[in-house]
Specification:
Elements lengths: L3 H12 L6 E9 L2 E8 H6 L12 E4 L5 E3 L6 H29 L1
Antiparallel strand pairs: 1-2, 2-3, 3-4
Length: 106
Amino acid sequence: MITYQNAMDMALDYLKGYDIPVVITLHGRFSEGWFYCYQSREYLETGEFSAQLAGNAPFIIDKDNGEIHSFGTAYPLDKYLQDYEQQKKHITSVLRSKQTVRSGLS
């Protein structure tokens, strides 16, 4: 299980991969982990439109395994979070069904 501090450290490390300094502008908890949005430091400090990032998709860190999943930019963040929750519930349900079948065969 990943803690909030673990997730924040992972998010900051993930963002170090950018060629320019970026800053987390929004973060929060949802049922399956933490989400993060970010923007260039220069844009936040100057408001200069040319310094604004394009395609800086929000990402999450899964609370169970620490995986980082980057989303798209076409839809609101809430849609991506709901889709992730549904996908994870479906996968968990399938895995539980397989475990039930296996234990019934033993």
